[in-house]
Amino acid sequence: MFGRSKEKIANERNGTLSAEVLYDRYAPMLLGVCKRYCGNLEDAEDVLHDGFIKIIRNLSGFEGRNEGTLEGWMKRIMINTALNYLRSRTKEKKLLVSGLNTEVLPVEEEEPEMFFEELAGRLKKEQIMEMICTLPAGYRTVFNLYVFESWSHREIAAELRCTESTSKSQLSKARAMLRKQLTLVLNKQIVA
Asked: What global pTM score does this model have?
């Protein structure tokens, strides 16, 4: 309750959310989502700003529906805003298209998820997120959609306008890069 005005508290108690309360409550989590897709804080903040404008403009539409949670709805808007941002950058810099290597390599046998989770479990969340942010845009986008949003390769392919094989290949390459980064960091920790 510290630092919140009486009006903000009254709005919360009345069940209405002011834009400021909504932002204060959800911006940190949504900024994390934006950063996972954008790869850097500056672009993530731009996406967060644009996404919140969409959220505020369409909030009455959400309140009229009984589908899903407010957090889930806002997260979906942020993801779509981030994907649109990456597409607009693609047109400018060929970022996403070049990041989505259309050369489809055979998907290597994945090491068990448990191995990957075990490696990741030895690091702080912030370290892992930084590693994800260093992935090339195409790898990072597919990885985020598949791992964090639980999209199928068919859904990813439709959204990114690529083939399912390309989506699978990009995921495999992203995991391989992350596994290599995780191993390097863990080896440095062992030596230190």
From this structure: 0.76
